Design the sequence.
């Protein structure tokens, strides 16, 4: 069974209001679509996991005229679920149709990043995967980042880091932050990321939390 890891890039006119909010705001660090159903002309119903400022996210939902209803459920100090009902756009309907065709399965989550792109994994028959990518509307470009045999699951260690968290950890490892004694400081990592020291420290803290949680969860499963 083949899979593609695909990054979707949207024309400015094709941006969903919440995509634009995540791209332009520094109040959300992670925004992932976990599940979604389309109502075939009725409301789309979507479930997101979000890390960031719940009040700012709610305000953005209130300001988006396509949002019919929503409910936010806090999980901890960093994350919350967002249940959203929205009026579908023609682009939404086309994308749902594209990735709901026979021979193709979308493996959640679909992650929206600070550039407004959407990263997702699709698996299935090679011809169907190629057809799905080829059928994307003109307003959406696809960069195929990985392709191979699908073998995800508990055997694969995946702490679910955001791109920025991964960049922070990669810089920290390269600079010797985790050596004993440490060969650099958080400020050095921040310089490599071109961000404030406090921001770099937060990226590292959340990345380390996710890695440790995944390690414990995986050991418990085994």
Sequence:
């Amino acid at each position: 069974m083949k899979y593609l890891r695909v990054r979707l890039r949207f024309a400015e006119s094709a941006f969903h209001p919440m995509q634009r909010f995540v791209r332009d705001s520094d109040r959300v660090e992670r925004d992932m679509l976990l599940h979604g159903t389309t109502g075939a002309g009725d409301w789309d119903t979507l479930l997101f996991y979000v890390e960031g400022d719940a009040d700012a996210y709610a305000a953005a939902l209130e300001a988006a005229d396509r949002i019919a209803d929503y409910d936010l459920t806090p999980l901890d100090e960093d994350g919350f679920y967002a249940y959203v009902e929205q009026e579908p756009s023609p682009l939404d309907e086309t994308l749902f149709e594209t990735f709901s065709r026979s021979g193709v399965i979308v493996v959640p989550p679909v992650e929206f990043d600070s550039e407004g792109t959407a990263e997702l994994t699709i698996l299935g028959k090679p011809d169907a995967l190629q057809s799905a990518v080829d059928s994307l509307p003109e307003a959406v470009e696809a960069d195929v980042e990985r392709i191979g045999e699908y073998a995800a699951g508990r055997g694969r260690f995946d702490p679910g880091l955001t791109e920025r968290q991964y960049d922070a950890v990669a810089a920290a490892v390269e600079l010797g932050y985790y050596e004993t004694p440490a060969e650099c400081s958080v400020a050095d990592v921040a310089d490599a990321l071109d961000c404030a020291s406090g921001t770099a420290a937060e990226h590292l803290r959340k990345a380390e939390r996710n890695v440790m949680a995944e390690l414990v969860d995986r050991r418990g499963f085994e």
Q: What stands out?
A: The chain has two domains: 2-149, 163-221. DSSP finds seven helices and eight strands in the chain.
